[in-house]
Amino acid sequence: MESPDLSDDPGVHRGFICASFNQDTTSLSVGTKTGYRLFSVTAVDKLDCIHEGVECPDVYIVERLFSSSLVVVVSLSMPRRMNVYHFKKGTEICNYSYSNNILSVRLNRQRLVVCLEESIYIHNIKDMKLLKTLLNTPTNPSGLCALSINHGNSFLAYPGSATMGEITVYDANNLSTVTLIQAHDSPLAALTFNASGTKLASASEKGTVIRVFSIPEGQKLFEFRRGMKRYVSISSLSFSADAQFLCASSNTETVHIFKLEQHSPSQEEESPTWSAYVGKMFTAASTYLPSQVSDMMNQDRAFATVRLNMFGLKNICALATIQKLPRLLVASSDGYLYIYNVDPQDGGECVLVQKHRLFESNEEQGDQKEEENPEDVPPQPASQTYAATVALPTTAPSSTTLMGYSEDGGAQRGEVIPEHEFAEGPVCLDDENEFPPVGNQNN
User: CA 53, CA 60: separation in Å to the nearest integer?
Assistant: First the structure.
């Protein structure tokens, strides 16, 4: 199943292919027609491009490991091959080739996970050894999966069914299935863990309800209603670092932020407001109503929102603390990063405080009037599941001739550049402050 080519959509920057935030939302990676770019997202007023990679063109997957020098890249020219680079040294650490197109890659300090349409490969990130292959997984054409960034548990979530919203939670450290969660009636569209790997948020293809489950138990903790009027395509889910908030973006003009808080009965008794009274009446009445009506009444609405000027294009969103204040980041396929202030107390409409170009002005589309005044360009959405929103080539490249290609579904490792650290032993990225040795990460 091929996905639409973003470059053909009106409003999409012609150089843009994909975008992703790193695990702690301090960096933004952008795949482009000429390669990829890494940006530092640590200040509101400036967006520094810290690296531009041109090793291969048409990059549709680019993932950086926290703030280290390790970056994983997959190109449309070789969609079955994953390249792992040490971008500060400009060297290739290693590469792996797989039996089919790579749809997504996830990584933490312990594991690197590669997702194909019907299989998942789990590598040990220290030496890139293939530890486990999950074959014959339910058909997953978008490569949907999520990996906990907490390498102490390394939980992996992926669809357990192609026709229903079932989630398989897998322990990528101990290489065993943890639990199955019946999350939605419709197939899954989005998954994300909180930073500690103790909560998992999900949305279905209908996009109306977002649910949060406890991990590893799989118990439903929260249920949020994004909307009732129409089905939408959720393109991005992301927790704040403290897991107090969850943001969701879609192919509509609205980004929703939900607050994860349990409603305490004691608080309602202390402040007997009219809304609290009505809430109690609804709770009492829900016990007598059909389950569908009761569930709808018990769903929480958005705590805060962002109104984009246009809809229909891909985006990714993330919640981050930048310069000590909570912000919502929206990376858009129009070639811009938008930064909004979030009021953590009162919520409401978020305020746009900054807009950054992801491409130089001379790279802009010259045939569109809006580009003459970049401030007038409306935010347009980028993609979370990269391959889900990027066209794989209509004519498949001769990937069957790639070194290491295997008909049995296995991954094959290419040559390792001898002078690189991986030739000697475990990875050492010369970023000890940004990427402490795995042995010191005791959780």
Answer: 13
